[in-house]
Amino acid sequence: MTWPATDRYDIESAPDGLALVQDLLNTLSAGKPRETDLLLDRDDAQAWLNTGWRDRNPAQDQSIRLDGDDVQRLRAFRDGLRDWLTRAGEEPAGEHSPPLPQVPFDAALRLDPDGTVQVEPAGSGWRAVVSLILIEMLHAQRADTWRRLKVCRSERCRVTFFDRSRNNSGVWHDVRKCGHPANLRAYRARQRTPEQSGLRH
User: Fold this and answer.
1) Position 14 pLDDT exceeds 80
2) 41 pLDDT above the threshold of 80
3) What is the average pLDDT score of the chain?
4) Which of 16, 36, 85, 99 is most buried when burial is the number of CB atoms within 10 A of its CB?
């Protein structure tokens, strides 16, 4: 399965439909060097969406079409969700957890012949995309994989990755590329502090 936003950062995709959520978050300009924002204009956003929608819904005859201010609204939803995910990864969970962005969305329930209830996206334009994203988030939360979707702690990177560590303790999308340089900068800063303090006294 192709995930154009995530693949360009050479990151392994999250499992199942959570990969679509990850890919939306990775449409943002991030990485080292910075990649282009894939939701910058309607044509780029439509090209990204067509790939993700086709992979998740191969039986669908039509893609979701983005028109008017859909791209701006979708970009605002993505940015809000990414900001929440960033803050949630930096703050302990609890009553002070940051609120998720509130957005309108449409969904439909379908009863399969075997009695299974399925949730399907509804609506059009950016609302249909948000509906699809929230449904995949729901599935991930039920599968207990949502908590493993994180934003790389490196401010010079900030790509979204799926933490596959046993105890879900990862904070870097790649320890070698982002973790070691950040730790080295922090170490050098700590070494400079005593010297500067000594000069002041």
Assistant:
1) yes
2) yes
3) 83
4) 85
Task: Answer whether 130's CB lies under 8 Å from 66's CB.
Answer: no
Name the β-bridge partners of 149.
Answer: 162
Structure pTM? 0.82
Dist CA 66 CA 46 (whole Å): 6
The whole-angstrom separation of Cα 8 and Cα 173 is 13
Q: Spell out the residues 6+ positions from residue 15 whose beta carbon is closer than 8 angstroms to its own.
A: 145, 162
Q: Which residue has the tokens 């701006």?
A: 72
> pLDDT tens across 131-143, in order?
999 999 999 999 9
Q: Which long-range contacts (CB under 8 A, 24 or more apart) does 124-128 make?
A: 124/64, 124/65, 125/64, 125/65, 125/66, 125/67, 125/68, 125/70, 126/66, 126/70, 126/71, 126/73, 126/74, 126/77, 128/64
- Locate 182 and state its tokens: 């950040």
